[in-house]
Amino acid sequence: MTESVPDLTSTQAAEINLISELLGAPGETIDVDILQRRASELHPADFADQFEQLSNERREALVALAPDLITADVLAELEDEVVENVLPLLPSTQIAEAITEMDNDDATQIFEEMEAEQRQEILVELEPEDRAHLEASFAFDEETIGRLMQREFVAAPPFWTVGDTIDHMRATGEDLPDVFYNIWVVDTGFHPVGYVAVSTLMRNPRDMTLENLMDDQLITIKQDEDQEEAAFIFEKYNLVSAPVVDEAGRLTGMMTVDDVIEIIQDENKEDMLALAGVTDAGLTDTALSTVKARAPWLFVNLFTAILASIVIAYFDYTITEVVQLAILMPIVASMGGNAGTQALAVAVRSLAERDLTSQTAWRAIRREAVAALLNGVIFAAALAIIAYVWFGRTDLALIAFIAMIINHFFAGLAGIMVPLGLKRMGFDPAVSSSVFVTTVTDVIGFFAFLGFAALILL
Description:
Helix content is 66%, strand content 6%. It is mainly alpha-helical. It folds into three domains: 2-145, MgtE N-terminal domain-like (MgtE N-terminal fold, Alpha Horseshoe), CATH 1.25.60.10; 155-262, Roll (CBS-domain); 287-457, Tetracycline Repressor, domain 2 (Orthogonal Bundle), CATH 1.10.357.20. It is globular, with a radius of gyration of 30 Å.
């Protein structure tokens, strides 16, 4: 079977699922040696991507055939839910070895996905230093920098020379982080006072002291800081790495830009899903788990829809008398809902990027109110013309015109004031804003349209 798989460049292999090709059809004979050789030629990120696309059964079959393919680099690239699915299939010694090879932050993420019993097994297999690093990381809350930071870094006193620093790094060898950009200069209390970029270090003579080379414009991050705040700091100051300090200002670790990019992606994905009232449907999730995650918000939407229906029911006589109202009514509510969603998306993004603050809030509210009012006038005129051409009634056109302006205006206000209000009360505006904004636009849209219809027509 596997002999029929053509030789591919790494780029071509990344474009198809080579692992699936090598595994063949269920029940087909597999040459394990060829499977291991060809799959190991893939970049760890490509292997992880193709491995994730396999079904649970095929992933388990691959791990059973060639567990050595699940290396430390592959584990670090896999999605969390896939790691959780794979770890019980691997021997404790292999996982412990992989954790030893990883940077501390990656090791912590892998350790998070284990069951309590497996954690104890792995801790027994680890060296005391690696075990201490993991235990120290888990002393911090999830999504804090103390949990995510790298505990391997290079620090040196200011009186060291370039030669002293290079010799120290060469002697330290495997204890250095895999990738780092700066040497942190520390005082006698181990407080960071500056940094020297590795590129600067390599360009200067051996007898030059770090004190003469260091940049003292140092941005530090506290170890109990939320990961979202750390990402904001990296973006604001264009950092590639930053030292992490404890409550006393002592150096305890570092964050690098590759870690922060992952944080930014996770936070953006979380906000996007929260706006829709859903959670991520992972590769290992079942239909039942997806239903459990989404059903609560759908119930909330059901009750808000009932609230809008109560408004409609209050004006049932008006709709019965003028049936054309039932045709125009959804247009008013739908346009208001879209206008509110637009304002909401901009507001939530601005809050996440710290552009929308208490100092800029009123300016943003005025902008959204004026924009909503202008859009309301434009589309109210368009709907009024359509209503007149369609039904030939000036009164219906007037009702649609007034209701559209009112609903657009309140939709724009709700789109920015709801997330601001939730933020002020300590809630995540991305999680629940959309439900409230939709309720406002539906209720006001129906009430304005039917209310003016009752006044004008009846």
